[in-house]
C-alpha cells in the first residue's frame, strides 16, 4: 500500500476514527522514562526534558503531573509525509469551531488529539470535511 499525496484524495478517504483510550500530555523524568516507555503512545525529547503522551490511567498510576484529558482521532488514510495542507485543513476546521487540536504525524497516519469533552464534535467536523470534499 502506498501513501497518498494529493490532498483532495486524502481528505475524501481519511475516515477519522475516535480511539477509546483517554490520553494526557506530560513531562517524564529520566528516572521514570523506563517505567512508562512500554505503555507510552509517544515520547519526544525536547530541550527542556522528555515529553510523553500517556494513557490517563498510567499517568495517574505513577503520579505524573499532566495536561487535561485528550482523546485521539486517527485518520485511517495512509497519508504521505510529503502531502501538503492536511494539517492546516484539519486544524483550521477545528479552530473555527473553537476546538483545540494537537496533531501528531507518524509514518502512516495522522493523529489528532482533542480535549475529551470535544471529541465527538471534532469527529463529526472531520467527517464533514470528507463529505464536503467528496461531493465537490
TrEMBL record:
This is ACT domain-containing protein. InterPro entries: ACT-like_dom_sf, DUF2241. Pfam families: ACT_3. Residues 4-71 form the DUF2241 domain. It comes from Microbulbifer epialgicus.
